[in-house]
Design a protein that fits this description.
By secondary structure, the chain is α+β, with helices and mostly antiparallel strands. It is about 30% helix and about 25% strand. Strand 9 and strand 10 form a beta hairpin. The two termini are about 25 Å apart. The N terminus is likely disordered.
Length: about 375
Amino acid sequence: MNIQPTSSRLSVFSAPPGAPTSPAAAPGEPSEESALQDTFQARTAEAPETRPSSGWKRKVLSTALAGLALAGVAGGVAGTVMVQAPICPGQTSPLSISREGVCVSPRAANDAATAWRQIRGTAHTTQTVQDLASDQSRVLQPDGTFKPAELPAEGGLRVVSWNLHHAQSPNQDGSRDQSALMLREINDQQAPVVLLQEVPPWHAQSLVDGTGMVGYYAQTTSTQGNLVLVHPDLQVAGQAKSILNSEIDGLADAVGHLGRYGGQEPRQVQAVHLVLPDGRQVMVWNTHLSTDAATSSDRAAEQVRLVDFLDAQARPGEAILGGGDLNNRLQDPAPQRLLERGFDVQGASIDFLASRGVEGLQTGHATLRNQAGQRISDHPMVWGEIP
C-alpha cells in the first residue's frame, strides 16, 4: 500500500471548509429546517428518556464549549486551528505554540471535530427525517468524472465492508480528516460492491463521484448514515431498507427520532438485489448495529429484526452476501443469530461479512494506515470474494 499524505492546508485565518449553508426563508416565514428543529425541541422536552446520559452530558458540554470557539467571533481562526492544526501526541493541554508552529492535543482535536460535525449536521436535518421515514435508500448517481475499473471478465463478485468513522482518524489520534486516503483505498480494492458505515452526508456524494459507483445512501442521524456503492454496470433488481430499533410511521414520527443517542440512535439495514453478468442473483446487505450503550433487550430485539429482514427480503434462488459493523464479536449474540439462520460469518473484531447460498467465499481484512503509521479509521477493512 503506497499512501501519500494530503499536502493541502488552509490558512489559520480562513473559516473551516465546507461550512453548511441553508436556503433563505421568505421574510416572516420560518425555514423548513427551523420548523423541524422546533418540533424536535418540543419532542425531546416531552420525552426526557431520549436525553443523553451523564456520560453524554459531559461529552455534550465538552463539544458545546468547542462549538463556541468554532461558531463565535473568533471561530474562523480558533475553529480552523482546532480542526486542522497538527496533533501533539501525548499532550494534555489543548493548544501548544512553539517555534515549529501550533499543535493541539488529541482530545482537544477530537472534541473540536465532534463539535464541527454537529454544526455541519444542522444542514442535513430535513434529509435525515426523509430518509428515516422511507423504506428505500436514497439513490445517488455519479457525476461521470471518474470511471471505475471494469467488471472482472471471469465473473464473480468482490464485496468490501468498512466503517469510515465519519471519514476521520480514530478519536484517540485526534480525529483528523482522512476522506482522500479513504477514497484512494476504496478505489484500490476495485470491488464492484462496497458497504460503508458512519458516512457523513456531506461526504456521501463525493464518495459516489470519486468511485464512479451508484450510491444507495440511508442517513441514520444528521451526521452519519450507511452507504452501499454498486458498480454502474451491475444490474440492480430492487432495493429496500428498514429501521431496526424503533418503529417510524411517517415524517412527523421521524422528527421525534432526531438527536437520539445513548443507545437510542436509529439503526438500520439496507438490501440491494443484484444480477451478476453471468446471471446469478445476489442480495447484498449493509448494517451498523447498536453499541452496548443500548440495553441488552433492545439489542436482542434489533438483532432479531435484522435476521428477519434478511429472510423476508431474500428471493428464491438468490445468494446473500453482506454485513457491516455488528458491534459484536464472533461469540456474541449478533453473529450467533446469523449463524443460527444458516449464514457463514467471517471477518475481524466487530466487522463481519455474512453469506448464505454462497460457495467458495474467500475473505480477508486489513487495518489501513497512512505513511506515518497512523490508522486511517478505527475499524479494519473487511473483504470477501465469490468466484
